[in-house]
Amino acid sequence: KVLILKKIGFYFLFIIGILQGNLMGATIKHIEIKGVQIPVIFEEQKALPILNLQLVFQNSGYIQDKDKSGLVSLSSKLLNEGTKELGATAFAQELEENAISLTTSNGFETFVIELSNLKEQSNKGLSLLTDLLKSPNFSQDTLDKLKTIQNGSLKRKENDFDYVAQNQLKSVLFAGTALENPSSGTIETTSKIQLKDIENFITNTISLSNLIIVAGGDFEEEEFEKFIKPFLETLKVGQKNEFQKINFISKNDEKTLIKDTEQAYIYFGSSFNADSKDEENYKAKVASFILGGSGFGSRLMEEIRVKRGLAYSAYGSISINKSHTYFNGYLQTKNESANEAKDLVKQLVAQFVKDGVTQEELTAAKNFLTGSEPLRSETLSQRLNSAFTLYYRGLEQDYSKKELEKIQNLKLEDLNSYIKSHNEINNLTFSIVRK
Fold first, then answer.
1. Calpha distance 211→36 (Å, rounded)
2. Of 183, 185, 109, which Cα lies nearest the Cα of 147?
3. Distance separating alpha carbons of residues 239 and 6, to the nearest angstrom
4. Contact 330/263 with Cβ under 8 angstroms?
5. pLDDT tens across 94-124, in order?
6. How many other CB atoms are there within 10 angstroms of residue 336's CB atom?
7. Is the CA virtual torsion 206, 210, 214, 215 positive or negative?
8. pLDDT tens string 275-323
9. Helix residue spans in 98-220 (DSSP H)
10. Is 430 helix (H, G, I), strand (E, B) or coil?
């Protein structure tokens, strides 16, 4: 039986290797503009006559909100309001008539402008992008409209108890760091953001020094470089935003908010001591899958829902980012079962750290993780995002293939030793919204 499983694992890796050889064609080069070496992650794909271009500004997400929570969120929304000359409606119409998609978004660490269009509309798309960055719709009327929409959304979320519980957990677990505030801010903080704050943020962020280009489509590399250089020349050098590492230590803590709700919403989290470049992160991936990331079959789901019927679903996962790493999870249960469910989560995590996993759980995790990998590299977008993530975290482009090989060769005793070394996840902080 063991020999058969090993052979299955080998064939999975062989097939994945072929797929990655054919599909994972992203290359990483640099273009020098005004003395700045700009990384370009690029994949040529002739199957469709398209262009997908992402301008990723690093260390520029809502980690930069500082004392103005919601600033970066409003800034990204303002860049979706067209130019000052055309306004939101006319600019959107121009995009639509040419089948061009131009959107701005942000995460915690990054600020992203994405342009997608048919290849024949690439010059038009890049021209509109140039116009947008040259003259964003900086007007008080636009900002007032965005604030009204944002505050309306935040007001509605006051009764979204998953949202409330999640943000309450962040405020306790990450207290004193850039992660403690909601990504969209609050009604109170949003009202204090002024137009000059957004102008300053966008002016300082949109610069060559913070830029990583992620692109793909029906272009050859030299053709794309020739195409993008004139646009890059329009951007200023700017100052590089320094990378910020978020350090925190979780505590056995609990915060409960009483609301008129039909069920209890329980969110929990803890420290997990790892770095995005750690060589043993593949073990965290397997451990996370077994503990709470695999849905049915995971420890949390089986013990909390299947065996005891305390919740419809229960999840937990280890999140490894460049700036921060932590364990987190959530479940919903009856109000009267909240304490029992919370205590059970503590017990299950403690038992997981103490005793580790079984060979059956490890084998199932190996088969799923290696077997599902091809599904993560089917599309151009998936492959580009994967290539960017590896580059951004300082990992080699063949890391994913090596990771799968390590997972397939992972021994039970090594995984359990790794799990036992992370006793810090027992320091669980709970956020509960209940009646």
1. 10
2. 185
3. 51
4. no
5. 999 999 999 999 999 999 999 999 999 999 9
6. 11
7. positive
8. 999 989 999 999 999 999 887 889 999 999 999 999 988 999 999 999 9
9. 122-134, 140-156, 161-173, 187-192, 195-205
10. strand
Beta-carbon count within 10 A of 318 CB: 24
pLDDT higher than threshold 60 for residue 77: yes
Helix 281-288 with 399-409: angle, nearest 10 deg = 60
Structure tokens at 51: 């262009």
pLDDT digits (tens, 9 = 90+) for 228-268: 999 999 999 999 999 989 999 999 999 999 999 999 999 99
Both tokens assigned to 302:
């089986």
Compute CA 146 distance to the chain's CA centroid, rounded to the nearest angstrom: 24
Q: Rounded to the nearest 5°, which phi and psi values hold at 397?
A: -70, -20
Place of tokens 């790892």: 274
Chain mean position to CA 400? 17
- CA nearest neighbour of 188 among 107, 68, 106, 77: 68
Q: Cβ neighbours of residue 164 under 8 Å, at least 6 residues apart? A: 157, 158, 257, 259, 265, 433
| Mean pLDDT of the 415-426 span | 97
**Over the Cα atoms of the chain, what is R_g?**
24
Query: How far is the C-alpha of 430 from the C-alpha of 251, rounded, in Å?
Result: 10
pTM of the full structure: 0.88
